[in-house]
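Model the whole thing, not chain by chain.
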Amino acid sequence: MTTSCDYVIPNGTLISGKWYRRQYKIEKLIGEGANGRVYLVSRGSSLFALKTGREWVDHQSEVNVLKSLSAKSPSFRGYIVDSDDLEQDGQKIPYYVMKYVKGKSPADFIKTAGKEWLRVIGLNLLQKLHGLHRQGYIFGDLKMENVIVGGYGEVELVDFGGVTAKGNAVKQFTEVYDRGFWCAGTRLADEQYDLFSFAVFCLQLAKPPQTAAQYAGMIPQNRSVDFLIEEVRNTPELAEAAPCLEKALRCRYRGTSEALQEWRSAGLRMKARRMRKGTPWLKLSFAAILLIFVWTIFYYW
Amino acid sequence: MQQIILITDGCSNVGLSPVVAAAQAQAEEIVVNVIGVIDDSPMGGSGHAEISQIAEAGGGMSRFVSSRQLAQTMQMMTRKTVVNTIQQIVGKELRTILGHDKIEELPPTERAQVVKVIDELGETSSLRVALLIDCSASMKDKLPAVREAIRDLLLSLQARNGKSEICVFHFPGGTYGEEAQLDADWTTELAKVENLFYKLIMKGTTPTGPAILTCIRHMVGQNRRRSLDEGGLLSDYVV
């Protein structure tokens, strides 16, 4: 039951769903993945993203997850807007409509905004994952391509094809981000699985873009957690995050809330350290002003 | 649920036609999937056609990939075969209720529920995958990749809720040129597949058909024995 893969809906087409009859205008194709295509569409003055499916069962399974998330979790509320079938030009294609997130790929964002944004992106991403984990799901296929970053480092997850109920086998993954690929553990859906991918994601973000391809080409004997940890340690931009990332790579976090807490305090600690460096100055000037003040009052008394 | 994944890089040249063998597998409710490994030279037209035909006769799918994509392809095939098989079973049920088995014709609410059931069954059903590896001379350089792909598949199967096992055959087998030789019997252990294919004597012939037959015999034979065991009474009389 596969739908035709090569059919691209032309720009400007007005489509309306078979069951609920809501109308959308196709603005342009904005993405293409293993499971389908994503179009930017408009309805009235609002913009949405519309994702078409390649396989009926896989697509519906993704919709099921998104609907249950939208209903339960505050961080995913209103994520899925509509779900229907398209019957056009003799094609039958299932689709769902979700909120449109304007943003960049994390790698592009870091390239223009600088690597100091890493901590904010990491924090927002962990918070997103935490929201998902609390609902009993894991993301599964966490990677550069499935994350979008907004103007001030806000993070949105896209492509929910890999989202898996905890305790099941991870539905979809990408080798470089996969715990099994690095001989670091199972493919069982647990919070630690996502945290491992999160660590590799941060590493990729701090390193040059070609790193992913280099890792993917490594022979099995050389793939190990120790190698990844060595890479983290040799990346100066990750100095502050390194303890968290190491713990995530070794799957030593009890859960995402612990990882989130440590990431947060690691980020704040650095600020605190900087301030401490300035403290003697501040204290001295404050004491001096106080002294002058007391002296002035005393003088004019 | 049972399936065979045949990994080969060329044409069979000895014995029974592999297409016939694959059709026999399907009759025994075993799905046959085929991966054609193409690294340096593109496969000849006849090899290409044979592989597609084996998969078609075996009710499975065929793909032509480089050895780098082997692991991914094997996973995808296994997963899709499970989903397809369950869809067929669910489809039969639907036909008796609705008169058709088309998931896409179902209204959204019903469709959501049917897919939920398919997903659940896909995760919990028991699964057996027999890997049948062509070890004729031209495959020699590809064997490390095959070994790695098997390790990877097992890793994914271990994470399933339902019982999942693999067994590994290679062909042509043994010193006397048997059709296929069993390298690892039904297992879920990574350790058992770690040392596969280290001591192999490469031969020129490619008895794909007879090898598939050996595989079927192994899968079906064990099922019979098992059903007898479960019979309880009868098992007391089986020596």
